[in-house]
Amino acid sequence: MEAVGVFQQAMICLQHVERELLLFTAFWLLVSAADEAVMDMCWLTLLLRGKARSTRLPADLSNVSLSGRSAVLVAAWQEEQVIGHTLSHALSAWKHKELCLYVGCYANDVATLAAAMAGAGQDTRVRVIIHSEFGPTTKADCLNRLYKAVCEDERRSGIRFRSVVLHDSEDMVHSAELAVIDRALDEADFIQLPVRPEPQASSRWVGGHYIDEFAEAHGKALPVRDALGAAVPSAGVGCGFSREMLARIARLRRAEGEGGPFAAECLTEDYELGVLIWREGGKGRFVRARDATGQLVATRAYFPGRLEDSVRQKTRWIHGIALQSWDRLGWSRITRSAGVADTWMALRDRRGPLAAMVLASSYLLVLVELLLATMRVGGLGTPPTASPVLQAILGVCLVSLVWRCVMRFLFTAREYGVVEGARAIMRIPVANLVAIVAGYRALANYLRTLRGAAVHWEKTAHHLHPATKAAGYPVHGYSGQGGTALPDRGTRVPAAA
Question: What is the pTM of this model?
């Protein structure tokens, strides 16, 4: 009898926990469902109006001369395992004589320096810049050094660059990228092209969940953001800036004590730069285009395939975008016609820690329900009756979950095929797990910085480059553009990749 009493008390406690978790998660899942429903309605409206389709490019665009000089900046620290592949492939893919590719290295990183020189070969369009300080500094600091080199070259030659493009050391570029950015800058100050994570046979679940998230984000969310006139964030790769706008940002940064247009203390300086351009009255655009063969003009790369690496990377993203940007950028003042849309997008950008909390509560609720169900099977109590309002909310949440699975399948299947689309649904728990742990770590790191701790950059290890095709997947649409086949030795990602 005493044991029965203990179980009954435990069940009463669990029922209280169940009720609080249910109310908390149901409310925020309903808010999230409404948010996603509005986003989906916006995208469907664009689709019905024919504005959600990717632009189809002419077959010879890759060989068209650029309207001005283009500087491509690549920061590299301990990138000896991949930088050679990136440079050799990019130089083979980009035939433009107007290109100048700046690679930032450090004197105490001889291996990366040697690999960069080998990847550049005899191509005079490459400039390897050695930082005056020993590495690692930060990616932003290295980019600022490259920006200084661009300015020095302009003074010496008397010719100003038209655009500045950013890439990471592990990227595989499309041959039409520079031409697309060059044309789009006629009507904008900043251009962001899609990012296309490559599937990995060795990491279908952790590495695979990136393809699901980017397929939906860069296939739906960013096109909607662009159409609404809200700030378009920079992904740090496959993005181009007008020379004049970058110079304006550099002047603002220098007034704040920075060494150039990139904020050295910011974990996601690329994201902040895209938003800052909008704040300064500039125009950013997200451009989706396909070449004559139907391949998306995008930056391809392998994302982290290990759980710990993925968590570290997303911790940096959440810390920088959701928390640091709150301090550094504040909230958009609604003084422009797109102010409401921009505030909505800022809310979406900064929901990472809250989303992690809601997801954790949801899975905890599932565990509590299983425990209660087990007790009820043993004859301890009966399930409580939910109110009509709560039943309605739970019904909406269930419908929303099904709809989210459908959307995730459709966007992933469109880019990667039906098999990956089906896997996308099964990978949702993996994505949720990464989000929960990364959200917790980001919040903990942020609280430490509030107590005076220094912001810490963590590099994420990658092990393959798409140009090697070493993962067992053909690189469709890019195979004819591959550069010198260097030995595959894995890869490391820049600090803010």
Answer: 0.88
